[in-house]
Each structure stands twice: as structure tokens, then as C-alpha cells.
Write a structure and sequence with these properties.
By secondary structure, this protein is of the alpha+beta class. It has seven helices and five strands. It comes from Salmonella enterica subsp. enterica serovar Weltevreden.
Length: 157
């Protein structure tokens, strides 16, 4: 009833979506591909690192601490990634002296990894990615990544 009484369009949508979920459950429709090749190519490195940060499971990574230097070559720049207290932060044009690992790759290789055209391990085997330092720390950080379901519950747990 709240959905039919609400005058605001967004509130009406919230209420009616919740009611539909309570009656029918979450309807799993076709999942759109939000990471199309054009979208990935248009992402700045900062956007990519924000994308990574969103996927960190803060609870699992709560006690982890890692620092990485990322070198994307002359056209991509250098970045410092810091994982601490379950949060991944990046700093452009910075380099940590005490980094656990330094990852060197070009933007095309990064795009292939994001698009899942090849894995980090495959790129390393081809010589497209160079990891110096503690590669286990990089694997540890990647282990803290969550994969989200596109269709999720709005009202029910």
C-alpha cells in the first residue's frame, strides 16, 4: 500500500520493488555486461584502482597490510597502492620505498586482465607483467577480492 500512496517516484519504486521481492523473490534476469571492452579502455588508472578498492572484502582484509608500486609505463604513470585496515587506497605519481612488491605492466595488458581475456599468471608467463619483490603479498591481496552478484536482495536478507 505504501507504494501506491507514495507521491515521490523513487519512493514508489522502492516500495513496489520491495513488495515484488517479498511476493516473488529476486527475479534473476539476464545479467548485462557492464565491463565492456570500450568501458574498460575508457577507464583511467584511478578509476581502475577505485574499482579494485570497491571489491576488497574489508572484513577478510581487516588485519592485512601491504604496499605495492604499480608502474604502467611512460603513458600510464606510477601508482602506490596501500592495503591497510581493510581499505585499499591509491596515490598517483608516488612510489613507496618499502613496497612489498612492484608490478610493471602496460595498459593493454591491464585491459586484458580486467576483461578476463588472460589471467595475471598467464601475462606473467608471457613476460607482459613483471612482479619484483614479494609476489605472495599480491596473491594475498587478490584473495581478498569479492565477486558481486548483479541481482541482489533489496528487502530480504
Amino acid at each position: 500500500q505504501l507504494g501506491y500512496q507514495a507521491e515521490s517516484g523513487p519512493w514508489r519504486n522502492f516500495y513496489l520493488t520491495g513488495a515484488q521481492e517479498l511476493r516473488n523473490g529476486v527475479v534473476k534476469g539476464p545479467t548485462p555486461n557492464t565491463a565492456s571492452p570500450d568501458t574498460v579502455r575508457a577507464m583511467t588508472p584511478e578509476m581502475f584502482f577505485d574499482f579494485l578498492a570497491v571489491h576488497i572484502n574489508g572484513e577478510k582484509a581487516g588485519n592485512a597490510r601491504a604496499v605495492f608500486n604499480i608502474d604502467l609505463g611512460s603513458d600510464g604513470g606510477k601508482y602506490k597502492l596501500e592495503l591497510e585496515n581493510g581499505v585499499l587506497n591509491h596515490t598517483a605519481n608516488a612510489e613507496a620505498k618499502d613496497a612489498d612488491a612492484t608490478i610493471t605492466l602496460n595498459r593493454d595488458t591491464l585491459n586484458k586482465i580486467i576483461l578476463k581475456e588472460e589471467t595475471l599468471k598467464q601475462a606473467q608467463d608471457k613476460g607482459e607483467v613483471n612482479v619484483t619483490g614479494n609476489a605472495a603479498k599480491l596473491d594475498e591481496m587478490l584473495g581478498y577480492m569479492d565477486k558481486f552478484e548483479f541481482w541482489f536482495n533489496i528487502v530480504t536478507p
